[in-house]
């Protein structure tokens, strides 16, 4: 593998890793703070992708679609938490698994009714529809670099939010012990709603950003969901730092695996997970 | 937090009656002459075995596995690998081998997975099943995404499973044997300890039980029984593909067990039949006012699941059980 | 190491802890604690809240692994052994917070406890068959514990509906059903009224024979009524150890603890 190829794979790894991070961060916070297993998390990703498709179809601008789509997702997330999820924080994990699995069925069906079962494509915006030449024969799409930058900014923003702000402190306190946090005056109900909405928005945003690259298709949520779970397990529940580290690790292993060992590529990530679990059954950065 | 229940193994009299009636119905069913329905009931019985195997893990031991289908699908593949292209394999050989294979894989995966707790356990069981899924999906040598065919059904001791009627009764016997085995297990020292682990693992350990070994044994046994079901599925359909090991199949199993009610084996049995009946019902819904109700069966199925979780978390068994059981 | 008292006991301790320590990050919860438990003797550990008594009990019962130090059970080095292994070798421990199987009946609780000794390994198919409640030796063991703890009247009641005092008795009975030689009891009188406490003290008194006992307690009346040896802990360290009389007169102890003793 020459340098240019290596660079491309590396960039792809980081881009994929950061995308996974967007989803896994929401998932790990929702797990860590509310103790909710949410199998429907992938559905929010799919929601984002389909929103991107629907809204760019209407307004011909991805940027506008992403903006409106994110706001819509926050609203949907807030509503779902209020109506449904809030009442399941104290139920057993099994009940949560079932509830969210039922939701997957419902969401997939709604998607089918609203947008059909075909694969749709979302156009890469004009502004970013070019490539950077690395060598005579190899180039890297500008949109991917753009995604890389956006995801990095979001990751950094999330990192700073969780680590350096008062809100972040409340979130971390809630992850550690929500009863105590509540006793210390944190409005835990509002915090839960906020974290949930944020999780949904991040997942949807991931879907919106990836839409031009991966196209928009049924059950796209399920595939990414499992990867997300692997990231959360490796990183440790409730840890955003863990989610970032694990996501990047997974991105690297998966991307380079597909290039170097194609037959076993998909398995490699799970082998990684097995190895981590042997030494740290609760993930790398468990609270 | 929904409190764990005890005395799940004690079945209300109404359920005893229902089961006896059900057995009679199953014995007599093929003589009603409906070939299509015979196949449908065979399928339900296979899924019932699958569901009961999960109940051992989930309802009795308290371990929620989102990857149980791995052991189901694997057994089918073993049969496919061992079946010659144009002749019948012997079920006397292939069945034990398939079950053993599932048990072995469950043992290995269980070793990694049983050391985790709570949410982690749920997620890693799912992840390992996915690993197996991709192993088969990505490798043409193992059939790839297209799967494998079993051209001639197994046969041995004069029982040719190519014959739908023979297969039906073969499956029924398996169903009864699995049911009886698991019910006895509930009352055995092993079963009692699993129950204790579900109710209070810490104290169970304190009393002197190596809970890791118990959980691993339950995990392996459950995998073996899932293998039995998967083998029969392969025989019936003559076709295996990676989806049989996938996430949706695992979730299917969980839903059957929940619908029926966990922890007493009978619930899983009832839930499996109930789930399939609901599925057929929803899929066969007519078109009303231009809206094809049957096409959107996922919506109804999903809503049913959500409803059960909210309204009847103990499943159908919970509804059949009298209010107070103790004192 | 403290010498045995007037009670006739063998010279060798059934449980011997040497310089046990436990560190949680920067916090030293238990600091170089040594003690011995002899047969027919009750060794009480007292001290203010946060003194490390429960952590010490966790170290002795194998619930937590020690950071350093040695543990010997009946002469065998059992350092680092997990709780279940210690239980199979004759050690029993009750918990401060009632830790029984709430949804099960008293009898089922005791049967599960009684079954542990001599049970087949889980992967042994022999353990998958046969009714657990028909094993005569297990039934006998459970019944002995039931009688000893005075729980016959509530044999078939669900543990969850029992009064607090009776639950605490069940807590002890479960340990007795495993028929250990060493008993570690963590605040058995916690939350009990006067009458209930009296019953419990009577039970503990009868248990002294044939067992080596460790008692962690705040109820000073009970402690002085039962203890042959007293060890006082403050901030994870042993500040005094000896007969009840000696401890009562110890200036350090008076300053640190007995002065603020709770009734």
Strands side by side in the biggest sheet of chain B = 1-4
Distance between the termini of chain B: 24 Å
Taking all Cα atoms into account, the compactness measure Rg of chain C is 18 Å
What oligomerization state is this entry in? heterotrimer
Helix segment tally of chain C: 9
Structural category of chain B: mainly alpha
Beta content of chain C: 15-25%
> Which second-level CATH architecture of the largest domain in chain C applies?
3-Layer(aba) Sandwich
Order of helices and strands of chain B: HHHHHEEEHHHEHHEEHH
Unreliably modeled segments of chain B: none
Give the overall pLDDT of chain B as a whole number. 89
Total number of distinct structural domains of chain C: 2
Q: Count up the helices of chain B.
A: 12
SSE string of chain C, helices as H and strands as E: EEEHEEHEHHHEHEHEEHH
Strand content of chain B: under 5%
- Biggest interface found: A-B, 46 and 44 residues
Task: Describe the 3D structure.
The complex is a heterotrimer of chains A (287), B (327) and C (263). By secondary structure, chain A is mainly α. Chain A has a domain of 184 residues. Chain A is 75% helix and 2% strand. In chain A, helix 2 crosses helix 9. With 327 residues, chain B is mainly alpha-helical. Chain B is globular and about 55 Å long. Chain B starts with 12 loop residues before the first helix and ends in a 7-residue tail after the last helix. Chain C has two domains: 174 residues, P-loop containing nucleotide triphosphate hydrolases (Rossmann fold), CATH 3.40.50; 79 residues, no CATH class. A six-stranded mixed beta sheet of chain C has the order 6-7-8-3-9-10, with helices on both faces. Chain C has a four-stranded antiparallel beta sheet with strand order 2-1-4-5, with helices on one face. Classes of the chains: A mainly alpha (287), B mainly alpha (327), C alpha/beta (263). Chains in contact: A-B, B-C. Chains B and C meet through helix 6, helix 7 and helix 8 of B and helix 2 and helix 3 of C.
In short:
Chain B has 327 residues and is mainly alpha-helical.
Labels describing this entry:
heterotrimer; A: 287 residues; mainly alpha; two-stranded antiparallel sheet; globular; B: 327 residues; two-stranded antiparallel ribbon
SSE order and pairing:
The complex is a heterotrimer of chains A (287), B (327) and C (263).
Chain A lengths: L2 H32 L6 H19 L2 H22 L9 H23 L15 E3 L5 E3 H23 L1 H11 L1 H6 L4 H27 L5 H16 L4 H21 L4 H15 L8
Antiparallel strand pairs in A: 1-2
Helix pairs in contact in A: 1-5, 1-6, 1-8, 1-9, 1-10, 2-3, 2-4, 2-8, 2-9, 3-8, 5-6, 9-10, 9-11, 10-11
Chain B lengths: L12 H16 L6 H26 L8 H14 L8 H23 L4 H20 L10 E2 L5 E2 L2 E2 L3 H24 L1 H18 L4 H27 L1 E2 L6 H14 L5 H18 L3 E2 L2 E2 L4 H15 L3 H6 L7
Chain C lengths: L14 E10 L2 E11 L3 E6 L6 H9 L6 E6 L2 E2 L5 H6 L2 E4 L11 H10 L20 H13 L15 H13 L5 E5 L7 H14 L4 E5 L3 H7 L2 E6 L2 E6 L1 H6 L1 H6 L7
Parallel strand pairs in C: 3-8, 3-9, 6-7, 7-8
Antiparallel strand pairs in C: 1-2, 1-4, 4-5, 9-10
């Amino acid at each position: 593998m020459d340098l240019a190829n290596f660079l491309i794979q590396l960039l792809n790894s980081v881009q994929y890793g950061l995308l996974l991070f967007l989803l896994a961060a929401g998932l790990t916070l929702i797990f860590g703070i509310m103790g909710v297993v949410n199998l429907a998390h992938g559905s929010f990703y799919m929601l984002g992708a389909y929103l991107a498709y629907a809204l760019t179809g209407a307004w011909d601008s991805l940027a506008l679609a992403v903006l409106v789509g994110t706001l819509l997702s926050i609203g949907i997330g807030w509503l779902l938490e209020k109506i449904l999820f809030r009442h399941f924080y104290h139920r057993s994990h099994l009940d949560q698994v079932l509830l969210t699995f039922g939701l997957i069925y419902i969401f997939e069906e709604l998607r089918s009714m609203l947008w059909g079962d075909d694969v749709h494509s979302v156009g890469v915006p004009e502004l970013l529809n070019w490539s950077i030449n690395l060598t005579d024969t190899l180039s890297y799409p500008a949109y991917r670099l753009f995604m890389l930058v956006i995801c990095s900014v979001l990751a950094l923003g999330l990192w700073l939010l969780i680590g350096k702000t008062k809100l972040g402190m409340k979130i971390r306190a809630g992850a550690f012990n929500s009863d105590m946090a509540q006793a210390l005056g944190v409005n835990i109900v509002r915090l839960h709603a906020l974290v949930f909405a944020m999780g949904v928005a991040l997942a949807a945003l991931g879907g919106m950003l990836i839409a031009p690259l991966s196209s928009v298709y049924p059950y796209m949520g399920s595939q990414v969901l499992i990867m997300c779970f692997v990231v959360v397990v490796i990183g440790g529940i409730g840890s955003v730092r863990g989610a970032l580290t694990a996501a990047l690790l997974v991105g690297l292993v998966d991307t380079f695996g597909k290039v170097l060992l194609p037959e076993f590529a998909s398995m490699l990530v799970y082998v990684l997970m097995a190895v981590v679990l042997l030494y740290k059954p609760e993930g790398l950065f468990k609270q | 937090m929904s409190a764990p229940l005890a005395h799940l193994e004690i079945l209300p009299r109404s359920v005893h009656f229902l089961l006896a009636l059900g057995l009679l119905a199953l014995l007599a069913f093929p003589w009603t002459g409906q070939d299509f329905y015979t196949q449908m009931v065979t399928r339900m019985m296979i899924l019932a075995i699958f569901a009961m195997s999960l109940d051992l893990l989930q309802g009795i031991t308290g371990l929620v596995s989102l990857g149980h289908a791995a052991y189901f699908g694997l057994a089918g593949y073993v049969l496919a690998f061992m079946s010659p292209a144009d002749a019948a394999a012997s079920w006397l050989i292939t069945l034990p081998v398939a079950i053993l294979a599932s048990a072995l894989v469950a043992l290995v995966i269980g070793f990694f997975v049983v050391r985790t707790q709570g949410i982690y356990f749920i997620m890693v069981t799912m992840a390992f099943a996915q690993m197996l899924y991709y192993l088969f999906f990505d490798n043409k040598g193992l059939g790839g995404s297209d799967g494998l065919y079993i051209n001639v059904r197994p046969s041995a001791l004069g029982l040719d499973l190519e014959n739908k009627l023979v297969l039906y009764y073969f499956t029924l016997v398996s169903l009864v044997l699995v049911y009886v085995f698991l019910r006895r297990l509930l009352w055995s020292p092993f079963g009692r300890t699993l129950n204790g682990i579900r109710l209070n693992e810490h104290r169970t350990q304190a009393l002197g039980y190596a809970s890791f070994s118990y959980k691993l044994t339950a995990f392996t046994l459950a995998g073996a029984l899932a293998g039995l079901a998967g083998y029969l599925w392969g025989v019936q359909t003559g076709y295996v593909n990676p989806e049989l090991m996938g996430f949706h199949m695992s979730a299917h199993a969980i839903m059957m067990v929940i619908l029926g009610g966990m922890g007493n084996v009978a619930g899983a049995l009832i839930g499996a039949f109930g789930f399939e009946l609901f599925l057929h019902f929803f899929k066969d819904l007519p078109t009303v006012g231009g809206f094809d109700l049957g096409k959107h069966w996922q919506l109804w199925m999903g809503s049913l699941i959500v409803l059960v979780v909210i309204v009847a978390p103990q499943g159908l068994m919970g509804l059949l059980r009298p209010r107070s059981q103790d004192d | 190491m403290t010498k045995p008292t007037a009670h006739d006991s063998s010279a060798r301790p059934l449980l011997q802890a040497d310089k046990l320590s436990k560190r949680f990050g920067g916090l030293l919860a238990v600091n170089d604690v040594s003690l011995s438990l002899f047969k027919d003797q009750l060794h009480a550990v007292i001290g203010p809240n946060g003194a490390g008594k429960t952590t010490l009990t966790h170290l002795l019962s194998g619930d937590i692994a020690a950071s350093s130090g040695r543990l010997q059970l009946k002469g065998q080095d059992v350092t680092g052994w997990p709780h279940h292994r210690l239980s199979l070798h004759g050690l029993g421990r009750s918990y401060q917070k009632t830790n029984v199987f709430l949804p099960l009946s008293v009898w089922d609780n005791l049967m599960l406890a009684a079954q542990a000794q001599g049970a087949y390994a889980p992967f042994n198919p022999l353990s998958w068959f046969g009714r657990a409640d028909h094993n005569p030796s297990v039934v006998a063991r459970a019944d002995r514990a039931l009688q000893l703890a005075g729980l016959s009247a509530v044999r078939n009641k669900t543990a969850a509906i029992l009064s607090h005092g009776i639950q605490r008795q069940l807590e002890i009975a479960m340990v007795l059903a495993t028929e250990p030689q060493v008993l570690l009891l963590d605040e058995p009188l916690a939350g009990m009224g006067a009458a209930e406490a009296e019953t419990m003290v009577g039970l503990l008194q009868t248990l002294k024979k044939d067992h080596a006992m460790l008692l962690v307690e705040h109820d000073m009346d009970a402690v002085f009524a039962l203890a042959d040896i007293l060890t006082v802990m403050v901030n994870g360290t042993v500040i005094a150890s000896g007969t009840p009389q000696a401890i009562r007169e110890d200036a350090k102890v008076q300053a640190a603890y007995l002065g603020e003793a709770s009734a």
